[in-house]
Amino acid sequence: MAEEVNTMDMNALPTFFTQVTRQLALVEGEIRRLFHGRGKCWPGLEQLTCDWVDRQLIVNVFKEVDDAFLQQLASGLLAITQSELWLEKQGKAVAIQHRYAQGAPTEVVFGEFEHRPVVTELGCQYQLDIGRNQNFGLFLDMRLGREWVKQQAKGKRILNLFAYTCGFSVAAIEGGAEHVVNVDMARSSLNKGRDNHRLNGHDLSQVTFLAHDIFKSWGKIKKYGPYDMVIIDPPSFQKGSFALTKDYKKILRRLDELMAAGGDVMACVNSPAVTSEFLIESMQQEAPQLTFVRRLENPAEFNDVDSEAALKVMLFS
Question: I need a labelling partner for 23 at 20 to 30 A (CA). Which of 227, 284, 287, 311 fits?
């Protein structure tokens, strides 16, 4: 597994600007990751990412850098705003979010920054909240997972565990799901999920929101089943509530009683410390009735030198 790289090289910034410009030229109207230094494919830029969010560039810096680096970063971003490409894409604002600092403060470099934009992905709309939390409400590396759910959802009853802001649920209802049950301990996240469904004009009678601890609520969860699809996308670590390897197996153990015959499972893990093999072996141990089908690709823009350090989305049926 690749080691964490903490230093960044100011001399590598021209590569960053070139890549951001190249990817910006390719985007249409949807939200998109433009640069993913975290995949360690760009030496000296491992702690930088850049997203295109409702005609705004958001650059995330994950480790503290010196003033000279930040000044050159801001200068290069301003140069992009003076380009014909920026005019063509109708760019509105540029911001740098300091993810290493307390509260992840957002520094606006250009324009009037919209902190609560509505964005489009795969024809679905999502309300984001930028700068108030580490994560803005939609994990962009999961785009192809949401696409798969949307394609497979028609007529199905779906269980979405660790639902967060209900991105999978929105995709599922958009794809014709009969009903989706979203479970997450954070009521505030589920409330945002409800708003996301409203944004898309969905019938909320087809969606259930359970603000519960999964491990204390199997009875309630089972009541809405059996499910034709179960989505498991836990946080890598949630203090006091979820220890990844131990608790993941507890969920897999329940699948037999939750699922309809012939159902599908999307099992995800985004911790560099947990491999895809862990999911395959754990499923064999805890839910032998299910067979590994394939690993979903991650979006090309999230290329990683170590595929096992990146998001792993595993399909079983």
Answer: 311
